[in-house]
Amino acid sequence: MTDIASNTSQTKPRSTVTLAIWVLLLLLMTALLIGLGTWQVERLHWKLDLIARVDARVHAPASPAPGPAQWADINAENSEYKHVQARGILLNDKEVQVYASTELGPGYWVLTPLKLADDTIIVVNRGFVPTEKRNPATRTEGQIGTETTVTGLLRITEPKGTLLRSNVPKEERWYSRDVAAIAEVRGLRNAAPYFIDADDTKNPGGLPVGGLTQITFHNSHLVYAITWYGLAIMTLGMAIFLVYSERKRAKAAR
Known about the structure:
Radius of gyration: 29 Å
Shape: elongated
Number of helices: 5
Largest sheet: 5 strands, mixed, barrel
CATH class of the largest domain: Mainly Beta
Helix content: 25-40%
Strand content: 15-25%
Structural class: alpha+beta
Oligomer: single chain
């Protein structure tokens, strides 16, 4: 580009080959930028469709939580945030606390296995407790011992840990809700490959606090599309200006 700028003031025109190379490069760059912009538009439509589908799932009436016959088909695309319901007995002695940072401050998610009538297990994120209430002995009222119904949103397992910290199950240090690891450490058989984020139904004693699921989708595709298309217009303009200036030089040199 420096070569273009430095030579626009010269009266001697470039050779046809040199001009053709510069124009071709600028046109190729324009095509690439248009392609990137179009890809972002497609991503925008996909993201808006995803948001609409998730919103429909969240606000739909609760349906029975998927059973073993459906587990193999569950994934984020078709199941996450689905409004579900399950009934069973909470296995409070197999509870796991996962570090959490929420609108209520730092603390822990309380994940408790729910044993259904058919002996399948669904891990339930019952909600948040502050750090000083991590020990179940400090919130015995919330340790429901009778059959109960859990309603909430289906969530996909979070394997291994977070980007910065890995789970250390043997030391009871959990940073993500890894269903498979929890099932292994707690000796749970026939556990569903997902967990349920419990809704805001109040628990006895007020803890854990449910209904804190954050549903957010980063959506900057429109900004990216405008940026790529804007750059495409600039490079196309440079190509047009280059051809125009070279023609002007050629006339002046005659």
